[in-house]
Amino acid sequence: MDKPSDRTLVIIPTYNELENLPLIVGRVRKATPQVDILIVDDNSPDGTGKRADELAAEDKQINVLHRKGKEGLCAAYVAGFEWGLERAYGVLCEMDADGSHAPEQLHLLLEQIDQGADVVIGSRYVEGGRVVNWPKERLVLSKGGNVYISMALGAGLTDMTAGYRAYRRNFLKELDFRELSKAGYIFQVDLAWRAVRSGYDVREVPITFTEREIGESKLDGSFVKDSLMEVTRWGLKHRGKQVKDLSVEMGKLVGYELNKKRRKYNF
């Protein structure tokens, strides 16, 4: 009997990931040789797009989508989703190019899809999940932000900003991608929140998130403020006064972290 994961596409957005790209692609192909890969490159000036084409020429399960320029992670994933839906993939996955999402754990997400889940999130904060090589301040901000987000929305999830995910096509087909919020990493929260609100089966599995070893994070602290402000608006509409009290406490934490302008965050 066929399983949904028999037609899986792993979408890997790239921008200046020349060194990381062949490493992550090689790991995916070794860990889950049955899946196809789509590299979505935003016209990287370091030659990542050209390297992606070379990898694709050597392996028919590797595909490349070139975009005109850097328009953000949400736009890259939306382009990947549309590409995959047009080609009748049953499961579409998000995965970072920098190695922070272990391809060796992808099977954990796909197993839950095959068991009936519509959306599976690789969580750093569910029991068994962990984060490697983050400073304490960054971990506190990420954990605190996710607690706030989940409580504000009443979503019952531990890691709504996580970017390691698997979606059934039926969920993605129902979305109007133009409606997704673009603030910071908020589109990840938006996708999970839409799934929960619509009654889809959303599950979390524990994963190990490892900070990149090559290259630099492409986000700075401003996205934290933007994302939490957006969530607060949603929460006020959904849960009222309860969120006002939460936002005061979370604001203290965010304010403290945003003063450290030299740090870059990827929560």
TrEMBL record:
UniProt keywords, alphabetically: Glycosyltransferase, Transferase
Question: One GO term of the cellular component aspect?
Answer: membrane
Q: CDD domains, per this entry? A: DPM1_like
Q: Does the keyword DNA damage apply?
A: no
Could you tell me which Pfam families the record lists for this protein? Glycos_transf_2
* GO molecular function terms noted in the UniProt entry: dolichyl-phosphate beta-D-mannosyltransferase activity
Record flagged with keyword Protein transport: no
**SUPFAM superfamilies in the record:** Nucleotide-diphospho-sugar transferases
Span of domain Glycosyltransferase 2-like: 10-175
Could you provide one GO biological process annotation from this protein's UniProt record?
glycolipid biosynthetic process
InterPro entries recorded for this chain?
DPM1-like (IPR039528), Glyco_trans_2-like (IPR001173), Nucleotide-diphossugar_trans (IPR029044)
- Give its E.C. classification number: 2.4.1.83
Can you state which reaction this protein catalyses? a di-trans,poly-cis-dolichyl phosphate + GDP-alpha-D-mannose = a di-trans,poly-cis-dolichyl beta-D-mannosyl phosphate + GDP
Record-stated family: Belongs to the glycosyltransferase 2 family.
- Name of the protein described by the UniProt record: dolichyl-phosphate beta-D-mannosyltransferase
Give the originating organism. Answer: Corynebacterium occultum
